[in-house]
Specification:
This protein is mainly beta. Helix content is 7%, strand content 39%.
């Protein structure tokens, strides 16, 4: 009974993270994105680990804010080294998204592929070879691109720099 109470408390105290993108691969090149006309599915192709990969994605749009008892949306991903049957195209979207590789827009939603080194350590520590690899990430959303506002000031009488935002 005690174990059940601890697990229940942990589930309530630590809700699921709202992931704005899904990790697809590391060190990917030759990235191409196609989307169905209705915007429900996307086919991402790229080269990594010495071969060409295809990822058929769908099933999720707009990550939700974390909340206890609420299930997070996530993309359904099917990976393959052979191209699956797919009828799509890409209306290139010119979005102000950091580290954008490519993006496609439909009347209902947007798809974007970004690449960045997310796992770098803090404090200027040299990363391991694995942590230095850029991640290829896929996002799917409707509406305008989110805006991140960051500000900096000093706390504890100017002793520490404080970064905050929305």
């Amino acid at each position: 009974m005690r174990l059940f109470a601890v697990l229940l408390l942990a589930a309530v105290a630590f809700p699921a993270q709202a992931a704005a993108s899904e990790l697809i691969a590391r060190k990917a090149t030759n990235v191409k994105l196609e989307v169905t006309r209705d915007g429900q599915q996307a086919l991402l192709s790229y080269r990594a680990q010495g071969r060409t990969w295809y990822v058929l994605a769908g099933g999720a749009i707009n990550a939700k804010a974390p909340a206890a008892g609420k299930r997070q949306v996530s993309l359904t991903l099917r990976r393959s080294t052979t191209r699956p049957p797919f009828s799509g195209a890409c209306t290139r979207a010119h979005l102000l998204v950091p580290e954008l590789v490519t993006a496609c827009a439909t009347a209902r939603s947007n798809w974007a592929v970004q690449s960045w080194q997310r796992a770098l350590p803090n404090f200027g520590v040299a990363p391991s070879a694995f942590r230095a690899q850029p991640e290829l990430r896929l996002s799917h959303w409707s509406g305008p691109v989110a805006v991140l506002t960051l500000k900096a000031d000093w706390s504890y009488g100017g002793k520490w720099q404080h970064i905050y935002g929305a």
